[in-house]
Design goal:
It is a single chain. This protein has about 375 residues and is mostly helical. Helices cover about 80% and strands about 0% of the residues. The protein is built from 18 helices and no strands. It has helices at about 10-40, 40-50, 50-65, 70-85, 85-95, 100-120, 125-140, 145-160, 165-180, 185-205, 210-225, 230-245, 250-265, 270-285, 290-305, 315-330, 330-345, 355-365. α1 (about 10-40) crosses α4 and α8 runs parallel beside α10. The chain is elongated and about 80 Å long. It starts with 11 loop residues before the first helix and ends with a helix.
């Protein structure tokens, strides 16, 4: 039962307490919706639309009253305002503090610039995203802050996508330094979980598997602390994959199987396909050809149903590994058939020329 009262019925202290509780509840909802958006977008959008008035009011008031998670709160709500096409509301939210102090205005500007850079990054425009991020970093106050940490993480992602691995590592290291100094709120822990996960990814790419394992473990610990279950299992899957390269096959199988079971339990099919592919890699390394074949076939089938054909995690990558398994098992006719299937898909796009060329080389063998 809701109790109705007017503002004059309570004193300032009571009002501040109730407002803070209100902000906390809707900040918590915004976090859950932000995570749900990646696994069940229609449900997240439906809930956000129903609660949009409360979400926008709570996030705006959180910013104005100096709530410790205000910046993250505004960013979470930004996603849905942009999704619904509410440009005026989005502009109002981003600029809600324009009449406040210079410090709060700086936070609002940083939040707006971060959203712009993030959108450019998601569109594949890494150069522009990087430029806006560096410009914003240079305009921030020198002392450690959540905004500085978050911008450093985004710059690191841009550098990594552009192949500047050492610069990316430097950005992530600086973000970790900043994050370790500022108050350890849930938002900060969530952000550091992302930073460590991204650091693990680039260390894995340059075959620093011990370093990647350490980064992934720190990411998983932070994500488990704040209850980000899906992200924790994403990291566990990456840990299991690194265990393969470190020769820890038993540990790898346990981690990947646990992640696979979780993704299936929540019907997160894209992650299920990724886990199956990596489990196939484990079986391929341990010469368990039949198990590897099934994993790669199942992974590719899910990807095809989802329309995810090319790219690092597309169906072609699983077909390629399936061909590799047949090749190693001495089933050359099967291997040739799957290599040709890969070629027929890769030749549809000139952007996959390198993969096309590599597949031709394998077919020649």
């Amino acid at each position: 039962m809701l109790l109705s009262f007017s503002r004059k019925d309570i004193n300032e202290e009571q009002y501040a307490y109730l407002l803070k509780k209100y902000q906390d509840e809707y900040y918590s909802l915004s976090m859950r919706l932000y995570n749900l958006y990646n696994s069940n977008r229609p449900q997240a959008v439906s809930i956000a639309r129903y609660e949009l008035h409360n979400l926008t009011y709570a996030s705006r008031s959180a910013f104005m009253t100096g709530h410790e998670d205000a910046v993250d709160f505004v960013n979470n709500v930004d996603r849905f305002l942009d999704h619904f096409g509410f440009k005026q509301q989005l502009a109002d939210l981003s600029g809600c503090s324009s009449s406040r102090t210079e410090e709060i205005s700086d936070k609002a500007l940083a939040t707006t610039r971060y959203s712009q850079a993030e959108q450019l990054f998601n569109d594949g425009n890494f150069i522009s995203a990087k430029a806006i991020s560096y410009e914003t970093l240079n305009g921030l106050l020198a002392e450690p802050s959540y905004n500085r940490c978050r911008m450093l993480e985004l710059v690191g992602r841009c550098e990594a996508e552009m192949g500047n691995i050492e610069k990316a590592k430097h950005c992530y290291a600086e973000a970790i330094d900043v994050g370790s100094i500022i108050p350890s709120t849930k938002s900060v822990k969530q952000l550091l979980g992302v930073v460590y996960a991204n650091l693990g990814l680039i260390l894995q790419q340059v075959m620093d598997f011990d370093g990647a394992h350490d980064a992934y473990e720190k990411s998983m610990k932070l994500r488990e602390e704040i209850g980000d279950k899906q992200e924790a299992f994403d990291t566990k899957l990456n840990l299991g994959t690194v265990d393969i390269y470190l020769g820890r096959y038993k540990a790898a199988k346990e981690k990947i199987a646990e992640a696979l079971d979780y993704f299936r339990s929540i019907s997160l099919h894209s992650s299920e396909a990724y886990a199956l592919h990596n489990l196939g890699l484990l079986y391929e390394v341990t010469n368990e050809w039949t198990k590897a074949e099934k994993c790669f076939r199942d992974s590719a089938a899910i990807k095809v149903r989802m329309g995810n054909m090319n790219g690092m995690n597309g169906a072609v990558s699983s077909w390629m590994q399936l061909a590799s398994v047949y090749h190693k098992a001495g089933k050359f006719g099967h291997a040739e058939s799957w290599y040709r299937k890969c070629l027929s898909e890769l030749e549809k796009s000139p952007s996959y020329y390198v993969s096309y060329s590599n597949t031709l080389t394998l077919l020649g063998e």
